[in-house]
Amino acid sequence: MEKKVSAVLVAAGSSTRMGFDKLSFDLGGETVVQRSIRAFAECPLVSEIVLVAGKNRAFLEQQAGACTKPVQVVQGGATRAESAKNGVLAAHGELVAVHDAARPFVSQAVITAALEAAAACGAAAPAVPVKDTVKRAVRGDGKTVPEHCMVTDTPDRSTLYAVQTPQCFDRAAYLAALDELDAEKARLVTDDCSLFELTGRPVQLTQGDYANLKITTREDLPRAEQKEGNDMRIGHGYDVHRLVEDRKLILGGVEVPFEKGLLGHSDADVLAHAVMDAVLGAAALGDIGKHFPDTDPAYAGADSLQLAQHVARIMREKGWKIVNIDSTLLCQKPKLAPYIPAMRENLAAAFGMPVDAVSVKATTEEHLGFTGEGLGIAAHAVALIEKL
């Protein structure tokens, strides 16, 4: 792309919903605004950066000191739209990328895609499909708070997108649209793309990123930053069972065809047992022997996936969420690869997790040790949990 690009970072907000200056918040050695500046400084398409300030002008000038590209700080306006306009007016590029400085996690891929689309059609913005069902609702007093609102309809979610920044424009077209916008339409501008939409100009959506979130409230901060104390833990689990004749081989809730099965008080699902121990251990809640003792006849032949569901309930009651599970089966034979997808699905369902958060692997022992000699099967598991 041959056009010169200016990045306009709007940083004039008051952070009233946050309760403190969110742009100064420390993200592992960088402030929020420093992370945003760096994202555009590292983009080879961007030649200059314009920071739009409010009462924080001195702070922004200090934060921009280490930037490797030309930076200018300009004063914002009374509204987000006025601040963006001031930034675009100060920019020198043929293309402008208007970005919320409070979106520090924007990726190079998101920036590049929006700029390339704007160069081709005049205006573009990154967007992601809306995940949740959306309702339109009203209440008699005209207020917009959810309490006592009555649903009027449900828009088709397949046509809805959450728009992000940077919203990228041909600068000349942007300024022309500003001149065409009358006072009545100006009140309808909710984001930078609205300017093009209200003046009949096309806007193309490009691939956004759910991680490209805007920090608006404390809940938007990375979890490690918004909580105090030991809120994430890791647990390890290990289990082993002997292979014997006249038993079914159950692994991760899957019956694997084989001449032998695992010996145990329950169904002897060594994989499920290791995973349960990892989850319980992370929360310091003991192991499966404590919760499901082999001296209790109630668990004779028990389905280990049902026991896993019980462990999941215990974790929720104790205020823990299981983030992900990684496990490894140590098995010389039979070959387990064809059954691993079903094992992952079973464990994910039992623990109430997405399948992509559950990993199951299998390896042989090269005929070494009791597992390598085919005398038994063992499993290791690691689980990450966090406070709800």
TrEMBL record:
One Gene Ontology MF term: 2-C-methyl-D-erythritol 2,4-cyclodiphosphate synthase activity
EC id: 2.7.7.60, 4.6.1.12
Region annotation (2-C-methyl-D-erythritol 2,4-cyclodiphosphate synthase) ranges: 233-388
Annotated binding of a divalent metal cation, by residue: 239, 241, 273
InterPro entries to which the protein is assigned, alphabetical: IspD, IspD/F, IspD/TarI, MECDP_synthase, MECDP_synthase_CS, MECDP_synthase_sf, Nucleotide-diphossugar_trans
Matches recorded under CDD domains: CDP-ME_synthetase, MECDP_synthase
Domain 2-C-methyl-D-erythritol 2,4-cyclodiphosphate synthase: 232-385
Site feature Transition state stabilizer, where: 17, 22, 265, 364
Domain of life: Bacteria
Pfam (any one): YgbB
Coiled coil spans: none
Cofactor(s) the protein requires to work: a divalent metal cation
Catalytic activity field: 2-C-methyl-D-erythritol 4-phosphate + CTP + H(+) = 4-CDP-2-C-methyl-D-erythritol + diphosphate; 4-CDP-2-C-methyl-D-erythritol 2-phosphate = 2-C-methyl-D-erythritol 2,4-cyclic diphosphate + CMP
Residue(s) at site: Positions MEP for the nucleophilic attack: 157, 214
Keywords: Isoprene biosynthesis, Lyase, Metal-binding, Multifunctional enzyme, Nucleotidyltransferase, Transferase
Pathway per the UniProt entry: Isoprenoid biosynthesis; isopentenyl diphosphate biosynthesis via DXP pathway; isopentenyl diphosphate from 1-deoxy-D-xylulose 5-phosphate: step 2/6; Isoprenoid biosynthesis; isopentenyl diphosphate biosynthesis via DXP pathway; isopentenyl diphosphate from 1-deoxy-D-xylulose 5-phosphate: step 4/6
Binding site for 4-CDP-2-C-methyl-D-erythritol 2-phosphate: 239-241, 265-266, 287-289, 292-296, 363-366, 370
Keyword Repeat on entry: no
Region (2-C-methyl-D-erythritol 4-phosphate cytidylyltransferase) location: 1-232
Family in the record: In the C-terminal section; belongs to the IspF family. In the N-terminal section; belongs to the IspD/TarI cytidylyltransferase family. IspD subfamily.
Function: Bifunctional enzyme that catalyzes the formation of 4-diphosphocytidyl-2-C-methyl-D-erythritol from CTP and 2-C-methyl-D-erythritol 4-phosphate (MEP) (IspD), and catalyzes the conversion of 4-diphosphocytidyl-2-C-methyl-D-erythritol 2-phosphate (CDP-ME2P) to 2-C-methyl-D-erythritol 2,4-cyclodiphosphate (ME-CPP) with a corresponding release of cytidine 5-monophosphate (CMP) (IspF).
Listed name of the protein: Bifunctional enzyme IspD/IspF
